[in-house]
Amino acid sequence: RAEATAPVVEPGIAVVSPLTGVFYSSPSPSSAQFIEVGQPVQAGQVVCIIEAMKVFNEIRSEVSGTVASIVAQNGQLVQKGEALIRVQAS
Using CA atoms, how far apart are residues 13 and 87, in angstroms rounded to an integer? Predict the structure, then answer.
């Protein structure tokens, strides 16, 4: 099947992890997520947290637009350079 080998083109601009750590979509388990799919986001807005060595690092969007997808799963280990979310630039 040819479609199985075709690369998947993700829409939008990726916000990538600047470090290896654990991805969190909200500031605490009882808090709302920083962002939701379809929501507008501004450049400089906090979109998630990466925990590395007991330090919680706020990750900010580099572009303004609309959240196209949240790639990483809450509580998942992500590697430096991995896409965390995708933003459709406005």
Answer: 5
Q: Tens of pLDDT along 9-67?
A: 667 999 999 999 999 999 999 999 999 999 999 999 999 999 999 999 999 999 999 99
DSSP string across 27-80:
SSTTSPPS--TT-EE-TT-EEEEEEETTEEEEEE-SS-EEEEEE-SPTT-EE-T
**Of 55, 52, 41, 28, whose CA–CA distance to 85 is shortest?**
41
Q: In what order do the strands lie in the sheet with 77-78?
A: 55-60, 46-52, 21-24, 77-78
The amino acid at residue 83 is A
pTM above 0.70?
yes
- Name the nearest CA neighbour of 23 among 75, 59, 67: 75
